[in-house]
Write a structure and sequence with these properties.
Four copies of one chain form a homotetramer. The first copy, chain A, has helices spanning about 5-30, 60-70, 95-105, 125-130, and strands spanning about 40, 45-50, 75-85, 105-115, 120-125. Chain A has about 140 residues and is of the alpha+beta class.
Chain lengths: ~140, ~140, ~140, ~140
């Protein structure tokens, strides 16, 4: 695994209590191991959470929607953390890669983890989404 | 116009300062009259805002995504307020009607307004989305 | 049930052999009762079929995509036939209602049937999608 | 540019008259240089065309929808040709990369061209969509 920078480590540390809180809320609501979705870090240093819902809206895009609502379209995401299953990490789908590219800073960091954040793999959006679509067609 | 109930009036009154704040934030960020999206009221009495963004994610679904993230899928929306343009109200699109139906209480209220909330029309989701799709196919 | 016009009856009759052929093809491919999707009739009198696939693309929109490809965006659909399950009819989802409204003639006919076309209910898009979204926001 | 294989060259040659025909149909219908969308080649050797339409349905997914309708979900695409603008090639968006991955053979070829097929760049889906999302979450 590529080593995390200090800023990335700090992001993960800040997500930990939020994720714990989310899991506890779901447990109270009667869920067994809910999909925990994704967390994004904005340029302004705020963290937004999004869970998958509806037909085909993943946690990443749900979280980006909250960022855009709270900070306007002028603000960008710096990092994303995608929370996976008990053992396995989950990669962002194609539509979410497009959204991370569009709403992220230049070459934003994409962290993919298992459910307990004990295993984290680090990517960049350029690596996951090379030769991007830029409109037209 | 069908008259608003007290609960509906209260919802609109609570949205007013939130909408004002959103418009001011956008003005500072350099927007001229941004799309203000929609506000949803959850069963727990909380209000969530969502703006349109990305390709085809409207404010209604963006706001519902935040509700589901913050309150789990066990919570439902009771009312939606769709903020329109300077003069005209805007109706929810078909995909948002499906989402309001799926994530709303029985026959949720849908309020459609102009940009300044000076003109509000009241619907129910049953009226806007009769004979709903319930899965299958 | 509202009675079908001669034009609507003719459309259903033309679909019958196409549906039979589709079911036979699926059977050969190893499907048990596949989702048969929808058929649309264009202004030029051609029929296009679409099955549900991917995440959230229903048969209606798949069929409309073929119509637009084959006849350009200047052509409209006149009728849709949505094929449902063994017993029950299936209604179009909200996103498909929007698409039928946008790509259909004024107040297009929507026929919803069970799997064998032995039970058909007739609607119009105005009835299924009143107070339509017309853009903006 | 990576050199095209004989099979890829043949695919392009087969698309040429189809594209010409499409452009002529659009011209008659009153379009100036319409978006020509994408062509997919199925395992069975058939070519399906799809144009962009609706909110966010690109030509690639429109063409894949026709393939799935015509050949069932058991059939896969082998190659895609994405037709771009007068000068520039266009890359598939993230959502289309996901669809090409899901509905394509192992490491399907993706050809991106300008409007007249005089400039073609060759990719594979593995290159454009590495570390794919495989469901879950």
């Amino acid at each position: 695994m590529t080593e995390l920078t200090d800023a990335e480590k700090e992001f993960v540390e800040r997500v930990k209590p939020l994720l714990k809180e989310y899991k506890e809320m779901c447990k109270k609501a009667g869920y067994e191991q809910p999909a925990a979705g994704s967390y994004v870090l904005s340029e302004r240093g705020k963290i937004y959470h999004g869970v998958p819902f509806d037909w085909g809206t993943c946690g990443e895009r749900n979280a980006i929607g909250t960022l855009v609502t709270e900070e306007t379209k002028m603000s960008k995401l710096e990092m994303v953390l995608v929370v996976g299953g008990p053992e396995e990490i989950i990669m962002p789908c194609g539509e979410c890669r497009q959204a991370i590219y569009m709403w992220g800073v230049e070459n934003a960091t994409v962290l993919c983890s298992n459910y307990d954040l004990t295993r984290i793999e680090k990517f960049t959006i350029n690596k996951l989404y090379p030769y991007p679509y830029r409109g037209g067609g």
